[in-house]
Structure formats: structure tokens, C-alpha cells
């Protein structure tokens, strides 16, 4: 339709996506075969059919199972290349990619294989598609703070190829405060920071992210609406929220797209961006996320353009590069 082509054609950002959550089902089967691994599904349709979740944990269980197919440098290269090609076709001009090394290093994959594969594919996409790209290292909040510190140490040889540090994983019971020293260390080493907060967790976790971790962005952030003082501060400081509407739907953070708080967040003057999170698992890249919001919430063309522009403003780029993207 007209609006679909219009949204796909808009130069967009994807600031909240996980490389290991971007493996399309057929690629997962191909990588499993290549590595001599047996999956519980033998067709792409059967695997896609398993992408039905009750909550964040039920998703994480399947997602960490899927991570097992990423073993060699070539695997990390191929999955990153596939995402970037698809995002480029979707009209993404700037992507910031999370990878969580702990899922792979715990099984003996050397950090070098992971970093070389991902960074090599990113360099190719810059050259072939003209994309602007940044890599962010994400740690797991359901593991310990010393584990996170070890990741920070492991990736320091690639410091100049990493734009930021983030954190995901099982949110409830693992508040930002558990990682205060880790985020201080990340900031001391010159990284931008972001943290998943207020996805399943309460507004208090978003508050901790802002005050204790002093992050530059909040990933998700939906729950902030329960705390009016917090909303005021987030708006006044223009802290970007990387919202992922279809992720929220599929993980039952919202019961339907019509209940999604995107418009409420926008109405409070928050710096809202729309992102894909884990596209095949949640059945949508950035365009589908924007269109789902438009259909359910009645976004105007101006509101869609505003959300897309917010993404460019929230990107971890120099002012010079931001001007070039606008
Ligand atoms: C997540 Cl560790 C991780 N990866 C992908 N998506 C996520 N959502 C919350 N934590
Ligand atoms: Zn995420």
C-alpha cells in the first residue's frame, strides 16, 4: 500500500536490536547443519511456529537455545551480514547492534571469532550499502557483576570499534543497582551506556537506570509512565527510549497493540524511538513496527516522521555524522 511503501522508504534507524536475536529460521537451520548440531525443529516453518511466548523468560529460553548455532567466526559474519542486508532493504540507514558475548564465550567460542565475524560484516555493509553502523556490547543481568566486568576486560582490544555498552536478560529480580560499579567502569573507559529497563520491570528500575547507572539511553522504558516525576525528568533531560512495540506485544508486556503506551510516551514529551529488538522472533523489522503502531494507535504521517527523526537524534554518532544522516 501507499503508506507501507512510504514508511519503508523513510531513512530510518534501528538502535535496539540484538544480532543473536536476528537469525531468521532458515539461517538457524543452515548454521546448525554446518556445525553438526541437531535442533528440535527440522523446517523453518516449524521453527517459526515455536516463536510464541508467554513472557520475557520464555523468549530468553528459546533465544539462548538458538545462540548455540553461532560457533565460528563465519557464523557471526553470516548472521550479521544477513541482518544488515535485510535492514538496508527496510530503509535503515543507521543501525546500532547489540551482541552479548557471554552466550558464546561460555561455550568456548573465542571472543576474537565473535568480534572479527561481526565487525567484518559491519565493514562490508558500510562499503556495500553505505550504512552507518555501531556495535554495542551487551552483558547479562541474570549473571553476576564480576562476570560483566570480565566481558568489559575481554573486549578492550576492540575499544575503538565499540560505541557503547548495554545490558539485557531477565529483568525482574535483577535491578540496575546490581550493576552500578560495572556501568561506572564502562563510563570510565569512555563508552556510551544504555540498559534495558521498564520492559517487565517497574518504574523504579528505570529510576535506578537514570540515577545510579547514569545511562545515555533507556532500552524499552515503557514502565516509566507509572512515575510522573520520572517522566518529567526523562523528558527534561531528553533521555531517548528505544521502544520495541512488536517485542512488547509478543512478550505480553502489552495485551494488544491498541494498549501499547507509545502514544502516551510521546504525549508526555519523551524522546521515543521505534526499534526491532529481535526481528524474526517478534515478526517485524522497523517498518513493520511503525506500521503496527500506525494501524493500532492511529499515528499520523507527521508522528511517524517525528519518531524516525528521534532515532537519528538518539543515535550514538558525532554531531557531524548526525547532520549527514538528517
Ligand atoms: C534481551 Cl539479553 C537479551 N537479548 C535480546 N532481547 C532481550 N530482551 C531482554 N533481554
Ligand atoms: Zn532488547
From TrEMBL:
It holds the Pfam family A_deaminase. One of its GO terms (cellular component) is cytosol. One of its GO terms (molecular function) is zinc ion binding. Its EC number is 3.5.4.2. The active site is at residue 199. The record marks 220 as: Important for catalytic activity. Residues 11-326 form the Adenosine deaminase domain. It catalyses: adenine + H2O + H(+) = hypoxanthine + NH4(+). It comes from the Bacteria. Binds 1 zinc ion per subunit. Keywords: Hydrolase, Metal-binding, Nucleotide metabolism, Zinc. The keyword Zinc applies. Zn(2+) binds at residues 16, 18, 196, 277. The keyword Zinc applies. Signal peptide: none annotated. One of its GO terms (biological process) is nucleotide metabolic process. NCBIfam families: aden_deam, PRK09358.1-6. Belongs to the metallo-dependent hydrolases superfamily. Adenosine and AMP deaminases family. Adenine deaminase type 2 subfamily. This is Adenine deaminase. It comes from Roseomonas indoligenes. The lineage of its organism: Bacteria, Pseudomonadati, Pseudomonadota, Alphaproteobacteria, Acetobacterales.
Amino acid at each position: 500500500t501507499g503508506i507501507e511503501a512510504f514508511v519503508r522508504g523513510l531513512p530510518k534507524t534501528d538502535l535496539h536490536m540484538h544480532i543473536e536475536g536476528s537469525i531468521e529460521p532458515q539461517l538457524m537451520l543452515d548454521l546448525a547443519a554446518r556445525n553438526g548440531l541437531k535442533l528440535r525443529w527440522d523446517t523453518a516453518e516449524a521453527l517459526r511456529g515455536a516463536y510464541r511466548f508467554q513472557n520475557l523468560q520464555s523468549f530468553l529460553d528459546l533465544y539462548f537455545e538458538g545462540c548455540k548455532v553461532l560457533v565460528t567466526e563465519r557464523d557471526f559474519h553470516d548472521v550479521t551480514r544477513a541482518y544488515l542486508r535485510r535492514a538496508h532493504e527496510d530503509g535503515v540507514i543507521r543501525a546500532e547492534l547489540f551482541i552479548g558475548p557471554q552466550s558464546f564465550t561460555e561455550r568456548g567460542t573465542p571472543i576474537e571469532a565473535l568480534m572479527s565475524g561481526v565487525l567484518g560484516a559491519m565493514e562490508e555493509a558500510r562499503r556495500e550499502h553505505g550504512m552507518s553502523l555501531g556495535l554495542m556490547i551487551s552483558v547479562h543481568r541474570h549473571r553476576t557483576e564480576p562476570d560483566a566486568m570480565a566481558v568489559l576486560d575481554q573486549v578492550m582490544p576492540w575499544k575503538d570499534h565499540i560505541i557503547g555498552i548495554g545490558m539485557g536478560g531477565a529483568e525482574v529480580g535483577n535491578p540496575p543497582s546490581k550493576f552500578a560499579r560495572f556501568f561506572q567502569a564502562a563510563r570510565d573507559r569512555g563508552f556510551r551506556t544504555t540498559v534495558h529497563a521498564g520492559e517487565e520491570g517497574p518504574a523504579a528500575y528505570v529510576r535506578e537506570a537514570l540515577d545510579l547507572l547514569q545511562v545515555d539511553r533507556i532500552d524499552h522504558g515503557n514502565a516509566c509512565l507509572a512515575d510522573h516525576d520520572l517522566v518529567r525528568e526523562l523528558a527534561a533531560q531528553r533521555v531517548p527510549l528505544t521502544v520495541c512495540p512488536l517485542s512488547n506485544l509478543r512478550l505480553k508486556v502489552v495485551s494488544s497493540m491498541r494498549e501499547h503506551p507509545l502514544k502516551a510516551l510521546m504525549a508526555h514529551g519523551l524522546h521515543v524511538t521505534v526499534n526491532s529488538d529481535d526481528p524474526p522472533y517478534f515478526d517485524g523489522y522497523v517498518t513493520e513496527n511503525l506500521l503496527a503502531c500506525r494501524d493500532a494507535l492511529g499515528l499520523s504521517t507527521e508522528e511517524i516522521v517525528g519518531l524516525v527523526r528521534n532515532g537519528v537524534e538518539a543515535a550514538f554518532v558525532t554531531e557531524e555524522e548526525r547532520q549527514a544522516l538528517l
